[in-house]
Please model this.
Amino acid sequence: MSDIHPTNQTLITILENQMSRTEFAFEGLDAETYSAEPGGDCNSLERIGEHLISLRQFQLMLLESPLAEQVPSLIASGSVEELLPALKKAAELVHRAIEQHDPEDWYRVPEPPREGKWGEDPTIIRFTRPFNDFTNHLGAVRAIRRIFSCGVEQTQ
Model:
């Protein structure tokens, strides 16, 4: 790993930390709690899990990586047993994309701006926003689990 650019390595470290936290957030979760909707559909752990996978795919799309097509989908067929392996695969794809990404591009301001949200922002800003969203949703998972008296004991 010593030949990986420091920026790329830092992003990989953040990704690995998130995956550790993700495993603990969903560890030992039963199917009933996973599919329960304590605050409506957007607050179910199942929907959050689907959203977490879509955030990984979004990161790949922001890097314009062809790996985005390989991200597994859980929509309408997901179970708690399928979630962590799918999230792990999605994270592995993001890991590979970070390793392969040109370190010179992270801080480049695109001229002309890229299409879509945050098109004028450097790649690093666009790419880290989904990291922040991912972390916020992991907090929601922990909160919902506490509502159902099945809190998580470890954070990482």
